[in-house]
Design goal:
Helices cover 6% and strands 31% of the residues. With 292 residues, the protein is mostly beta strands. A hairpin with a 2-residue loop joins strand 19 and strand 20. It is rod-shaped. About 2% of the residues have low confidence.
Amino acid sequence: MATYTTRIRLEKQATGDNSNTWGERLNSNVFDLVDSAVAGYTSITLTDSSHVVTAADGSADEARSAMLYLHGALTSSVNITIPSVTKQYMVRNNTSGSYTITAKCNGGNGVVVPQGYNTMIYCDGTSVRSTFGDVTGRAIGVCATNVPDTSLADIRYITASADSTVTGSKTFTSTTKFDNTVAVSGAAMGTIITLTDAASIAVNGNHGNNFVVTLAGNRTLEAMSPANPGQTGLIYVYQDGTGSRTLSYNSIYKFSGGTAPTLTTTAAAVDVLSYSVRTSAAIDAELKTDFK
C-alpha cells in the first residue's frame, strides 16, 4: 500500500515495492512533483467564490506549486485556502476589482494579499502568515511606520542623515524641533492668534508667537502658559470703539525700569507689546503705542 510524505505528498517506496516499475513511479510520483514544489507555477482564476487549492497524494496538484498566480475580476472578497501543513509560497495577486484576497488554511488565521503585489506567505501548520511582516502595510522588521511606493516624480520620504531638498507645501501638526541653524530664504509667517477678551486674558504660548486682542473693558494680561524660553513675538492690543480701556500685567512680564507701561486709550487705538521669554518665570516686554 502506497504511503506519502506529509507536506508535499510524494510517494514513498517500501523495500521490494514496484518491481520493474520503480524507476517510472519515482520519476512521475516523486521527481516531477519535487520539481513542481521547487519551481512550479500555478495560475488560479478568481471572481466571486473562494478557492480551495487542490491537494493530491503522489500526483500533480495546485498546492504543491512554489508560485501561485491569482488573477480575474473580483466581484466580492474571497479566500484562497491552502493545506494545513508547513510550506511557503510566492504569491502574485494580479486580480482587479476593489476586493480582497485572504490566504488561509482551515481553522487558522489568514493574511491579506494586496492587489498588485508579489509577496511571500507561509503556513506554519495552523495559520497562514506573511514571510516579511504585514503585507497589507508592508511594515519592515520592527518599524512602527509603513513604507509606501515611491517614484522619482513623487518622493514622500527623505534620507534623514543626508542633505536633501524638499519641494511642495508641508504641514506639521505637532511640535517640530530643529537642533541646528535654520536658514530661511523666503518669508517665514506665523498665524496671528486671536485671544479671548475677558477680565483676565489667557495666552497659550503653544498656540503661536503673535497674538491680538480687542479690549472691551479694563483687563489683566495673565501669565503666558506655557512660557517657552527663547520664544519671541508680538501682542497687538486694540481699544474697542469706546476706548479708555486699561491693561494690567501679571508679574511674569518684566519691563524696563520695573514700570508697567500705559496703553493708548483713544477709541480704536492700536498698541503693540513685543515680548521675549527669558525663563519660564520671566518674560521681557516693551510696549510701542498709538500705531496709525
